[in-house]
Specification:
heterodimer, A: 486 residues, alpha/beta, Amidase signature (AS) enzymes, 16 helices, 39% helix, B: 3 helices
C-alpha cells in the first residue's frame, strides 16, 4: 500500500478482500507518523515545539489505535464491515473523545480530559474507525496557519518552510503527508477548506447544521461546522455520510433532504470580480480548470456577479466571529474545567487563569468580541454585521435562484505562505477572503486540489472552491469529482 | 475610532489579565482591527431585533436527563472539588473594615 496516495475507497476494498488487515494498515500509518511527524511516543503536550518533523499530531494513540484495529478486523472477519470500519482517521484537537485529552491547542485546556464523546466521534465509533491521534490546530481554531497553536506550528508537507494553513492545519498535513487516511476538521471561516487547499487535499465545509456540533469545542456557534479532510472527493462523501444527521443534542442540527440526482450537468457560475483577489498564477490554475470543465460539457457562466457585498464579508465575519467566540470562551474561568490559577479573589482567579491560559490571538479576539458587543458599540458593530450577514445570505439565494447551480472561486488568494509572513493579524485575516462568505451564509462548499504553483522552486498546491446552495452537498460531490478528473 | 478605546478597561470587562508590555501592543492592534471591521457599510436593513432568518434554537423544555446523572463525570473535570461540589472563591464579601 502506498500511504501517500491510498484512498478510503481503495482501503475498504483491500480490507474486505483481506489483502491486508486493519491492524497492518494502522501499523503502517503509525510507522509513517514515527518517521515523518517527529518525536514519538507522544510526549506530554507542550514539549513538541521546535521539534523536527511535520508536527501534524499533538498526541498519537498508538496502543488504543491497535486495539481498535483488532476489533475492526474481527468485525470485518464477520462480514459486518461499515464503510469506515478499520479506516485510520485523525481528529482535530477540538473534538471530544471520552477519556482522552482535548486541548484545542490551548494551554488553558492542556490537561483537560474529555467527559464525553462528541456526536461525530460516537458515529465514527459505531462504524469501527481507528483513531490515530489528535491533530494540531490554531488555538481554539483561531487562525489560518497553525502558528497560533500553544504547542508549536505544523509544517506543510509540500514545503516545510511553509505553513499548512489553518486552523485545521494538523488534520490537512496528516492527510496530505500520508499520516492518516482521512481527518476531521472544523470550519468557522475556512478552517477546513483553506488548509486542505494549501496541503493539496479535499476539504468539505458542510451546510450549517448538517453535522452535529455536540462535543465540538465552540468558537463561533452560528458559523462552526465539522467536516472531512480527505484525499479524494469520493472519500469526502463517505466520511460526510458517516457523520451527518440530526442530533437531539445539537438543536441547530438538521437532517438534509435527500436530493434527487440531477440528470443534467450543474450550471457553474464564476464569481469573477471577487476571484480577482487571487494571485496571478493561482488564478491561472482556476481558469484552466474552468476551461477543462467547459470542454467536458459544463455550462460555465462567467462572470456571474453577486453584488459587491462579498467584499464586505471579511469585515462582517471579523465582527460576528469574535463576538461569538468571546461569549463561548467566557466558560474558561478556572472553575469548571481546565487550567486554574490560584488567586486571592474570585475575580482574580478568572483574570489570571484566562490571562495565563489564552494565547495572544485568542486574547485579541476576546477583546474585539467584548468591544463589539458592549453597550454603545453593539449597534454600530455587532448588529450592523449581523444585518450585513443576512444581506450576504440573501445575495447567495438570489444568485442561485437565477439558474446557477454552483458558484466557484479559488479557495485561497495565494498558496501556502512562509512562517511569520503574516505576523500582522489583518494580513492573516485576509487569507480567509474567499471562504468566509460561505460560513456567513450557512451554505456548503468543497475545496478540490487543481494543480500547483511555483514558489522558490517548490510546487505548492492550490484549491478550487465550489459553493452550493443550502443542502447542496450532492451537487458539490458531483462537480468536485469532475474537477478531480479534469 | 483610534485613541478612543481604553484597552485596559476592555481587558477588565473581558476578565483578562494583561501585562503592561502586552497592553502597549494591544493598544496598537485592537484599534487597527476595529478600524478595519468598522468600515463595514450600513446595509440599511439594520434592526434591533436581529435578522429574520438567523434565530436562536433552544431544546424543548423539560428535564433532558435524570438529575445528577452526569454529576460525577463533570466533577472530575473541575480543578477543585469537595464532597461532590465545585469549589469557588467567596463571591460576596462583607466590606473589609480597615
Amino acid at each position: 500500500m502506498n500511504l501517500e496516495t491510498l484512498t478510503i475507497v481503495e482501503a475498504r476494498m483491500a480490507l474486505d478482500a483481506k489483502e491486508y488487515s486493519a491492524l497492518e494498515l494502522t501499523n503502517a500509518y503509525l510507522e509513517a507518523i514515527r518517521a515523518k511527524d517527529g518525536d514519538l511516543p507522544a510526549l506530554p503536550a507542550g514539549r513538541h515545539g521546535g521539534r523536527q518533523g511535520i508536527h501534524a499530531y499533538l498526541e498519537v494513540w498508538e496502543e488504543v489505535a491497535r486495539a481498535e484495529a483488532k476489533r475492526a478486523d474481527e468485525r470485518i472477519a464477520r462480514g459486518e464491515s461499515a464503510p469506515l470500519t478499520g479506516i485510520p482517521v485523525a481528529v482535530k484537537d477540538n473534538m471530544l473523545i471520552e477519556g482522552r485529552i482535548a486541548s484545542a491547542a490551548s494551554k488553558i485546556l492542556e490537561n483537560y480530559v474529555a467527559s464525553y464523546d462528541a456526536t461525530v466521534i460516537t458515529k465514527l465509533k459505531q462504524q469501527g474507525v481507528v483513531f490515530l491521534g489528535r491533530t494540531n490546530m490554531d488555538e481554539f481554531a483561531m487562525g489560518s496557519s497553525t502558528e497560533n497553536s500553544a504547542f508549536g506550528a505544523t509544517k506543510n508537507p509540500h514545503d516545510t518552510s511553509r505553513v499548512p494553513g489553518g486552523s485545521s492545519g494538523g488534520s490537512a498535513a496528516a492527510v496530505s503527508g500520508g499520516m492518516a487516511l482521512a481527518a476531521l476538521g472544523s470550519d468557522t471561516g475556512g478552517s477546513i477548506r483553506q488548509p486542505a487547499a494549501l496541503c493539496g487535499s479535499v476539504g468539505l465545509k458542510p451546510t450549517y447544521g448538517a453535522v452535529s456540533r455536540y462535543g465540538l469545542i465552540a468558537m463561533g456557534s452560528s458559523l462552526d461546522q465539522i467536516g472531512p479532510i480527505t484525499r479524494s472527493v469520493s472519500d469526502s462523501r463517505i466520511v460526510f455520510d458517516a457523520i451527518r444527521g440530526r442530533d437531539p443534542k445539537d438543536s441547530t442540527s438538521i437532517e438534509l433532504a435527500e436530493h434527487s440526482k440531477n440528470k443534467k450537468l450543474p450550471v457553474i457560475g464564476v464569481l469573477r470580480r471577487f476571484s480577482e483577489h487571487a494571485e496571478k498564477d493561482v488564478l491561472a490554475r482556476f481558469n484552466e480548470t474552468l476551461k477543462k470543465l467547459r470542454a467536458s460539457g459544463y455550462e460555465v457562466r462567467d462572470p456571474v456577479e453577486a453584488s459587491t457585498l462579498l467584499d464586505d464579508s471579511l469585515a462582517a465575519y471579523y465582527i460576528v466571529m469574535p463576538a461569538e467566540a468571546s461569549t463561548n470562551l467566557a466558560r474558561y474561568d478556572g472553575i469548571r474545567c481546565g487550567l486554574s490559577v490560584p488567586a486571592e479573589t474570585i475575580g482574580d482567579v478568572y483574570a489570571k487563569t484566562r490571562g495565563e491560559g489564552f494565547g495572544p490571538e485568542v486574547r485579541r479576539r476576546i477583546l474585539i468580541g467584548t468591544f463589539v458587543l458592549s453597550a454603545g458599540y453593539a449597534d454600530a458593530y455587532y448588529r450592523r454585521a449581523t444585518a450585513m450577514r443576512e444581506k450576504i445570505r440573501e445575495d447567495f439565494v438570489h444568485t442561485f435562484a437565477n439558474g446557477v447551480d454552483v458558484l466557484v472561486t479559488p479557495t485561497t488568494p495565494s498558496p501556502a505562505f512562509t512562517f511569520g509572513e503574516k505576523a500582522d493579524s489583518l494580513a492573516m485575516y485576509a487569507a480567509d477572503i474567499f471562504t468566509v462568505p460561505v460560513n456567513l451564509a450557512g451554505i456548503p462548499a468543497l475545496s478540490v486540489p487543481v494543480g500547483t504553483v511555483d514558489r522558490e522552486g517548490k510546487n505548492l498546491p492550490v484549491g478550487f472552491q465550489i459553493i452550493a446552495p443550502h443542502g447542496g452537498e450532492e451537487t458539490l460531490f458531483a462537480v468536485g469529482a469532475d474537477v478531480e478528473k479534469v | 475610532m483610534k485613541g478612543t478605546i481604553n484597552v485596559s478597561d476592555l481587558a477588565k470587562l473581558a476578565r483578562l489579565l494583561v501585562s503592561d508590555e502586552e497592553l502597549a501592543k494591544l493598544e496598537r492592534e485592537v484599534p487597527a482591527i476595529l478600524e478595519f471591521v468598522g468600515k463595514l457599510p450600513d446595509s440599511g436593513t439594520f434592526t434591533r431585533e436581529g435578522s429574520a432568518v438567523l434565530r436562536n434554537v433552544m431544546r424543548e423544555d423539560g428535564e433532558p436527563h435524570e438529575s445528577g446523572a452526569h454529576a460525577d463525570v463533570l466533577l472530575k473535570a473541575a480543578p477543585n472539588v469537595i464532597d461532590g461540589r465545585v469549589v469557588v472563591k467567596q463571591v460576596i464579601s462583607r466590606e473589609k473594615s480597615h
